[in-house]
Fold this protein.
Amino acid sequence: MAHKLYVGGLSFETTEDELRTLFEQAGKVESAVVVTDRFSGRSKGFGFVEMSTNAEARQAISELNGKTLGGRTITVDEARPPRQSGGRPGGRSGGSGYGRGRW
């Protein structure tokens, strides 16, 4: 099972290949993704790397957190699961219904 890491502080020019190459120093990389804006396609300055084992993930954190990539100091930590929205199921907030058509 792969172990997912968060990588912050990336240069907007950092590519997924550069990210993969850096993390391969710590072990086998299952995937490397630079998160981009869906409209502009520009990097958001962070990404995720999946390492093959927990030991390799810990080694990557230990060796690469605080290192420089693309002229910027990066942050490497365990990825957290996505947050749940506080709204109701289906993403709707409820409400009184006012404002929908005539009343």
